[in-house]
């Protein structure tokens, strides 16, 4: 696996450009009312046999004027219920479920501005030092017109209070107030669990975004 | 097969371990703690992203960015498993014509316009090809019109052109697709703002921190110098890397021209880390 020694020539990354107003036709064509591919990637990602608590994540993405955007691409990446990512770099002991990729893609709705993801609640993943687990979380990545380079954040679960309080990532955020921008409240109706995760691009409630 | 989906070293344990078992044994070596360190070790951390080659979030030259740009600095986050993993796609998830924009939406003929081949390699910052990664593209038709309900430009919709495609890089990190050269189109930045001909690209790599969306332009397009979205990139040599070069060697004689566009995603510090581990 030895490749180029450190100090070799690095190739600079290709620069980012905005996804533009028509990101839907490329990445979520169904939302643009455009039927082209037989198999479409979407926001409902846990099949009936995937273990874990069924959850719905709903939210809006607000711009700096407080307007709910209606054209933002939302992608999420998460571990399974055992806290394991479906990826070769994850060598944790938790059970791997090949039928659960853990990746969702959707957009904020053209009419309501609400995005919806249906998935399972992830388990806790071991942190980078191997000493303690990170609190359960879902990685978010958003892109759209006006966003020059995709924005990365994390959603945590409000009902994981103890785990959140010990989470190494939440704890690096200096202002406790700002940690709250990443914690999604839980609500239950007719046995359906919904977490609400609103993202604020700018302003008083600006969401914490990461440079990972 | 993509390297990233090669069989991992799976350590099947009985049930789920608990991180708390090691308590606060900070610095303790061997035993269970060493085990967990190994399992959580990110053996390929990514180089920090060089933000100077990307557009910053807030670029008044592109007006829409003003209200959609975070104003508080991004929080730096060292890589954990959440960052170095990412979705992997398999070729059998795609249809046979998904990469052929000349035919994947056509009903009664080929789309109007100049047919071209676009191809290139997806590499990481160490120059290593990224095989098995998903590349998705979308674009306007020859007249500069998108098949999108929000696009109201006067250019006609082409009944035989959808304007999107997707493919997975081969074992050498190579991708290619056939399409028609997109037209320039106006957009409401200034009254007389025009986008140069471009194709939107979305790429994954093997880790979620490599995720990238960008746009490819065409060598020689005079509108490149006037575009407000290109102008968001402060580094002009970086802009140059978004311009696809005419590639006569890949053209099909008497049939169509070709353009070459290589995409570089972030690379890892893997070698350094391995050395460090072995040396300690
Ligand atoms: Fe465009």
Structural features, described:
The complex is a heterodimer of chains A (212) and B (280). Chain A contains three helices and eleven strands, in the order αββββββααβββββ. By secondary structure, chain A is mainly β. Chain A has a single domain, classed as Protocatechuate 3,4-Dioxygenase, subunit A (Sandwich). In chain A, strand 8 and strand 9 (192-196) form a beta hairpin. Chain A is globular. Residues 1-7 of chain A have low confidence and may be disordered. With 280 residues, chain B is an alpha/beta fold. Chain B has helices at residues 31-40, 81-84, 236-240, 270-279, and strands at 75-76, 115-124, 134-139, 164-168, 174-180, 185-187, 193-195, 198-203, 212-218, 243-246, 257-260, 263-265. In chain B, strands 2, 3, 4, 5, 8, 9, 10, 11 and 12 form a nine-stranded mixed sheet that branches. Chain B has a two-stranded antiparallel ribbon with strand order 6-7. Residues 1-29 and 272-280 of chain B have low confidence and may be disordered. Bound molecules: fe (ii) ion (FE2). Residues 195, 198, 200 of chain B line the site of fe (ii) ion.
Q: Give Rg of chain A in angstroms.
A: 18 Å
Count of separate DSSP helical elements of chain B: 4
Give a count of the beta strands of chain B, DSSP E runs of length 2 or more: 12
> Which fold name corresponds to the CATH topology of chain A?
Protocatechuate 3,4-Dioxygenase, subunit A
Overall domain count of chain A: 1
The number of strands of chain A is 11
- Biggest interface, which chains? A-B, 100 and 123 residues
Largest sheet of chain A: 5 strands, mixed
């Amino acid at each position: 696996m030895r490749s180029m020694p450190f100090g070799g020539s690095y190739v600079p990354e290709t620069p980012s450009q905005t996804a533009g107003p028509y990101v839907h036709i490329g990445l979520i064509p169904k939302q643009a009312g455009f039927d082209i591919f037989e198999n479409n990637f979407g926001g409902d990602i846990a099949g009936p046999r995937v273990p874990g608590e069924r959850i719905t994540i709903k939210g809006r993405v607000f711009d700096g004027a407080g307007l709910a955007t209606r054209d933002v691409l939302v992608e999420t990446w998460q571990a399974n219920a055992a806290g394991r990512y479906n990826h070769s770099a994850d060598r944790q002991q938790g059970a791997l479920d090949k039928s659960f990729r853990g990746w969702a893609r959707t957009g904020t709705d053209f009419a309501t501005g609400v995005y919806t993801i249906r998935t399972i609640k992830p388990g806790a993943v071991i942190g980078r030092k191997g000493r303690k687990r990170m609190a359960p979380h879902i990685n978010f990545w958003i892109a759209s017109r006006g966003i020059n380079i995709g924005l990365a954040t994390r959603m945590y679960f409000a009902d994981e209070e103890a785990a959140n309080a010990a989470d190494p990532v939440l704890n690096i955020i200096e202002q406790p107030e700002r940690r709250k921008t990443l914690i999604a409240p839980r609500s239950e109706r007719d046995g359906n669990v919904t977490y609400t995760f609103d993202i604020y691009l700018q302003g008083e409630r600006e969401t914490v975004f990461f440079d990972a | 097969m993509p390297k990233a989906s090669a069989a991992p070293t799976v350590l099947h344990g009985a049930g789920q371990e608990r991180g708390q078992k090691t308590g606060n044994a900070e610095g303790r070596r061997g035993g269970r703690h060493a085990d967990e360190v190994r399992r959580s070790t990110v053996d390929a951390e990514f180089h920090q992203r060089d933000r100077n080659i990307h557009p910053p979030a807030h670029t008044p030259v592109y007006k829409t960015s003003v209200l959609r740009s975070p104003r508080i600095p991004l929080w730096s986050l060292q890589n954990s498993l959440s960052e170095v993993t990412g979705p992997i796609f398999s070729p059998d998830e795609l249809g046979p014509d998904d990469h052929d924009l000349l035919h994947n939406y056509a009903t009664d003929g080929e789309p109007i316009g100049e047919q071209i081949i676009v191809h290139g390699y997806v590499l990481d910052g160490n120059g290593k090809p990224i095989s098995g990664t998903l590349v998705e593209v979308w674009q306007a038709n020859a007249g500069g019109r998108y098949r999108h309900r929000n696009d109201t430009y006067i250019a006609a919709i082409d009944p035989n052109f959808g304007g999107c495609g997707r493919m997975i890089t081969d074992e050498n990190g190579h991708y290619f697709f056939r399409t028609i050269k997109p037209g320039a189109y106006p957009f409401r930045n200034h009254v007389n703002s025009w986008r140069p001909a471009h194709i939107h690209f979305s790429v994954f790599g093997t880790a979620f921190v490599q995720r990238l969306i960008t746009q490819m332009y065409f060598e020689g397009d005079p509108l490149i110098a006037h575009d407000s979205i290109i102008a968001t990139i402060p580094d002009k040599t970086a802009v140059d890397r978004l311009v696809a070069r005419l590639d006569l060697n890949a053209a099909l004689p008497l049939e169509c021209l070709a353009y070459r566009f290589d995409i570089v995603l972030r690379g890892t510090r893997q070698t350094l880390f391995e050395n460090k581990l072995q040396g300690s």
